Amino acid sequence: MTDTGPRDTGAGAQEKRADIPGQAQRGEATAPTAETPTGRVPAEAEEARAAAGGGGLGWMMYAGVVLVAAGIFEAIWGLTALLRTTYFVVPSIGLVVSFNYTAWGWVHIGLAVLLVLTGLAVLAGQSWARYAGICLAALSMIANFLTLAAFPFWSLVMIAVDILVIYGLSVHGQEMQRLRT
After folding, report:
1. Which of 164, 117, 157 shows the shortest CA–CA distance to 138?
2. Is residue 33 classed exposed, middle or buried when 0-12, 13-18 and 19+ CB atoms within 10 A define those classes?
3. Whose CA is closest to 123, among 77, 165, 72?
4. What is the spatial distance between Cα 115 and Cα 76, in angstroms, rounded to a whole number?
5. Which value, in Å, is the radius of gyration of the alpha carbons in the chain?
6. Higher per-residue pLDDT: 95 or 50
7. Nearest to 171 by CA among 97, 96, 63, 81
8. If phi over 0 gives left and psi between -120 and 50 gives alpha, with beta otherwise, what is residue 27?
């Protein structure tokens, strides 16, 4: 093996790098120069990032689309309860709240209409829809929990979807309002 010559790996090499702007190694601090911006990111850059889809805008789009889809699924649940009461795993007296399936069908259909309308409002960027979506997703989660014995797998999937919608609307809800202003 051949030697390529002496190497300076000590303090001298670090001093040489510190003299050249932008050559600091990881963990080394550099003094601010005229080319290096200091402080916070300008508001224009933050708005451009939000408008370009950064942050939670994707979560808001997800929440709006999934609210519409959850409304359609709730409508399917409600129509099944109205039209084919023998399709369920247990009779209606086996549920946590023993309404008959016709009553549960109308509850799910009413919830479906509200979920679809709220999902469309979330997609349109309405600020009230964020709070309504959280409340309706929570109601949908409760309704699916109370009818868990009738449709076990379906209800568990819908509960998980409702949790993700609540997360998207509550944590990332400000992004839609920023986009509108």
Report:
1. 164
2. exposed
3. 165
4. 13
5. 28
6. 95
7. 63
8. left
Residue with token string 């090499």: 13
- Read off the pTM: 0.65
For residue 69, give both structure tokens: 């889809």
The token duo for 93 is 């007296």
pLDDT in tens, 64-93: 999 999 999 999 988 988 888 777 767 666
Is 89 in contact with 101 (CB distance < 8 Å)?
no
Report the alpha-carbon angle 142-143-147, nearest 5. Answer: 115
Query: Can you give the length of the chain in residues?
Result: 181
Per-residue model confidence as pLDDT tens digits over 85-119: 777 767 666 677 777 878 888 999 999 999 999 99
Place of tokens 């093996």: 1
